[in-house]
Amino acid sequence: MLKNDLYTVTAFENNMGTVAAAISLNTAHPIFNGHFPGQPVLPGVCMMQIVKELTEEATGKKLFLNDAAQCKFLSMVDPGKTPELQVTIDYKEPSEDRVAIVAVLKSTEATFFKMSANLLIV
Q: Which part of the chain is the ApeI dehydratase-like domain (predicted)?
């Protein structure tokens, strides 16, 4: 949905339930014109979608965000100042219909977003 449009994956490692990915934001994407004019910020819902899409890539399964036990937006992502981000996702399949994740989106200077959630396999 957002991959190869809002962001591109520049590195991706999937190792025994842990994903380490590097992404590059498309700073010219039209979403930044409206969110917010003159002060672009990566929308929180897009951070959540990026995590979901990278988890789908890691598991090879189509997923749906069922519940987020914890979702913390710690700092704003200004795409002009921080176009390169790192995403780490620890995941496991506690049952045959869901994937439990703990994810972090950060740069070398700051942590922007943390989430613990269950994604349903659809």
A: 15-93
Arithmetic mean of pLDDT over the chain: 96
Considering the four listed CATH numbers 3.40.50.1110, 3.10.129.10, 2.60.40.1180, 1.10.3880.10, the one that applies to the domain covering 7-121 is: 3.10.129.10
Residues 6+ apart with CB under 8 A from 1: 49, 53
Output the CA angle 100-103-106, nearest 5 degrees: 175
Q: Which residues make Cβ contacts (< 8 Å) with residue 96, sequence separation at least 6?
A: 121
> What's the pLDDT at 71?
96
Distance CA 47, CA 111 (A): 12
